[in-house]
Amino acid sequence: MPVSDSDVVRYEWRGSFSNQEVNALHAEAFEHRLFDDNWVDQLERLSLGWVIARDDDGLVGFVNVIWDGLVHAFIEDTAVALRARGRGIGTRLIEMAREHVAATGCEWLHVDFDDHLRSFYFDACGFTPTNAGLIRLR
Asked: Do β-strands 108-110 and 72-80 pair in parallel, antiparallel, or remain unpaired?
C-alpha cells in the first residue's frame, strides 16, 4: 500500500510550534475545553525540552520534559492527535525525549499516567513500575 505524504511524520527536539497548535492538540488529547495558554513562554522558561511531531497536515504529537535541574527528568503532556493515533507516534515521542534527556546527563526519567495508559508506558515505552505517592490539592 503506498504511503501518502501525510503519513510521513517528522520529529524535532525543541521544535517550534504555535501556542494555538499545542492548545488545540492538548484539548483534543486530554478531552478538555480549549485554553489560551502561552506554551512557548512556559516551555522556554521551565522545560528541559520537548518533542513535536508533524505531518503535512500539521502538529500530530507533542511531549514536554520538565526536570529538577540535576538528574531527574519528568514526562508531561504526551499528546497525539486523534487522526494520527495507532501509528507509533507516541512511542517515538517518548524515545526521542529519552535520547535527548540521557544526553543531558540526567539519570532518571519519570512519568505518571492514568491506568488506561499502563500498556503504552510500560510495554511500548519501557518504563518500569515503581511506587509513588500523590496528594490531590483540588
From this structure: parallel
User: How far apart, in whole angstroms, are the C-alpha atoms of residue 114 and residue 79?
Assistant: 13
Task: Give the count of beta carbons closer than 10 Å to the beta carbon of residue 128.
Answer: 6
SS3 at position 1 = coil
State how far the Cα of 29 lies from the Cα of 116, in Å rounded to an integer: 14
pLDDT tens-digit readout, 100-129: 999 999 999 999 999 999 999 999 999 999
Residues 14-71 have pLDDT tens digits of 999 999 999 999 999 999 999 999 999 999 999 999 999 999 999 999 999 999 999 9
Distant-in-sequence, close-in-space partners of 44: CB < 8 Å, separation ≥ 6: none
pTM, 2 dp: 0.91
Exposure class string for 46-64: b at 16+ Cβ within 10 A, else e: ebbbbbbbbbeeebbbbbb
State the amino acid at position 73 in one-letter form.
A
**What homologous superfamily does CATH list for 5-124?**
Gcn5-related N-acetyltransferase (GNAT) (3.40.630.30)
**Distance (Å, whole) CA 30 – CA 80:** 10
